[in-house]
């Protein structure tokens, strides 16, 4: 909550000189995490999304400068060394799993300076290139969890587990640098863009330190309010 209040105060402080407000929603088309030790492959099959708000002012012909923030809901990171065995035969169903689970380790609230250079096409259409540079407040979500179990059913009746072992590892995430580069097109007050983004995050799992930086390609759409 304190981080959200801080972001709001910074944006409110510059609203008096802003001449454009951009409201944007984005969906991640690709996701890459750093591969960490034994518990994370670096892949993710889930989707992340974000909502951002920006205040911008034209400081030179076709060039706007401002500040932004938002909420970035990051996807789960794929667990490493997970072995899954599953088979079904007449009257018997068997499943076994061993390894670290897929987990969402953190979401992010970035606060950043943003610059945009516009390429007007006509009175309605235009294109632009854009850069964001700032700092990300990373919100801790899940701990790393090791899962080791086997279960089976006979004639649809669940049997006692053959073995079962699950352990949670205390996981802490720190804030870090954030940047994004990309571009888009606009039609009147509507716009669509594609951005390559990276959020930096130091992570500590069970006392061992590493980093779990998160990179992605984000497709966004939004609306600009002019002043």
Automatic annotation (TrEMBL):
<dbReference type="Pfam" id="PF13505">
    <property type="entry name" value="OMP_b-brl"/>
</dbReference>
<dbReference type="InterPro" id="IPR011250">
    <property type="entry name" value="OMP/PagP_B-barrel"/>
</dbReference>
<dbReference type="InterPro" id="IPR027385">
    <property type="entry name" value="Beta-barrel_OMP"/>
</dbReference>
<feature type="signal peptide">
    <location>
        <begin position="1"/>
        <end position="18"/>
    </location>
</feature>
<feature type="domain" description="Outer membrane protein beta-barrel">
    <location>
        <begin position="5"/>
        <end position="225"/>
    </location>
</feature>
<keyword id="KW-0732">Signal</keyword>
<protein>
    <recommendedName>
        <fullName>Outer membrane protein beta-barrel domain-containing protein</fullName>
    </recommendedName>
</protein>
């Amino acid at each position: 909550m304190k981080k959200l209040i801080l972001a709001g105060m910074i944006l409110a402080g510059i609203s008096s000189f802003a001449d454009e407000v951009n409201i944007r929603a984005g969906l991640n088309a690709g996701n890459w995490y750093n591969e960490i030790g034994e518990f994370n492959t670096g892949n993710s099959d889930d989707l992340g999304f974000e909502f951002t708000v920006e205040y911008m002012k034209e400081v030179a012909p076709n060039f706007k400068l401002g500040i932004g923030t938002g909420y970035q809901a990051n996807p789960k990171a794929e667990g490493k060394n997970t072995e899954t065995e599953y088979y079904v035969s007449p009257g018997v169903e068997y499943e076994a799993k061993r390894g670290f689970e897929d987990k969402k380790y953190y979401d992010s609230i970035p606060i950043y300076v943003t610059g945009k250079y516009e390429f007007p096409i006509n009175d309605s259409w235009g294109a632009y290139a854009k850069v964001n540079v700032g700092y990300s407040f990373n919100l801790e979500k899940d701990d790393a969890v090791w899962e080791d179990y086997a279960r089976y059913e006979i004639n649809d009746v669940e049997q006692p587990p053959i073995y079962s072992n699950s352990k949670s590892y205390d996981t802490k995430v720190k804030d870090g640098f954030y940047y994004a580069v990309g571009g888009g097109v606009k039609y009147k007050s509507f716009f669509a863009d594609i951005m390559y983004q990276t959020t930096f995050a130091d992570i500590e799992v069970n006392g061992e330190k590493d980093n779990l930086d998160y990179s992605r390609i984000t497709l966004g759409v939004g609306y600009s309010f002019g002043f």
